Amino acid sequence: MKTSGKTLAEKVKQIKDSNMLSVRSDSLPTWCPGCGYFGIHQGLNNAIQQLGLLHHKIVNVTGIGCAGRYAFFTNTYGCHVVHGRILPVATGIKMANPELTVFAVGGDGDGLAIGAGHFPHMVRRNVDVNYLLFDNSIFGLTKGQISPTSPIGAVSKASPSGNVDRPLNATLMALSYGATFVARLFAGDPEQNTEILKEGIQHKGFALFHFFSSCVTFDKVYKTWGNLKDKVHPMPASYDSSDLKQAIIHVLEDDFSMGIIYKR
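Request: output the structure for the sequence above.
Response:
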């Protein structure tokens, strides 16, 4: 069996040699089998190990939802807060102890619905916090309701006639607010995610990592693994990530290019 050009045995050995499992807590992840959040978890754990970050100097701030469980599965300090409030809490932690590496981890429902009002202010202050936005375009933990990033026409038990609201684009929002590091990533590519996370973590200032993921339990039509794998693709070779105007135009024209969108 091959995984990303390596045999399964080679991949297992690579994981063991990286010592990334030391970032895992004794609490095993309880996400649904096949959930993209496992891949994001792997990518971040590997980035932490490769950067040599001390676990006791890391804080994961999580909210409510499937992504909100993240802090329980990681051998670092964690703070589980109320729905939509991860960004102001992460700001307070970083201000209280600037030596900490702070990760704000939340889903599209947590961050772009009840928590959306905090997003522009976090960006404009350029607080040195890493925001991992897990975007599967659905409220998974509360059984599959439409979220702020669900496509028009998406059907759920709570919206049997289909979603009528235009979806929000977190990548475009961050660019328009003036973010200094913006990346769009695919949960199914943990190795690329590791490299981009390492670069963003070392960036001084606010960093958005907008992860496209799949909800294998409640979305069988739209953001499925098959659909995402068919659509995601690398940034063009000629792309200049230092050009904000180009970044905005690119995101408006291309919904599924993955990589560093903008850095300043």
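The CA atoms of residues 95 and 212 lie 29 Å apart.
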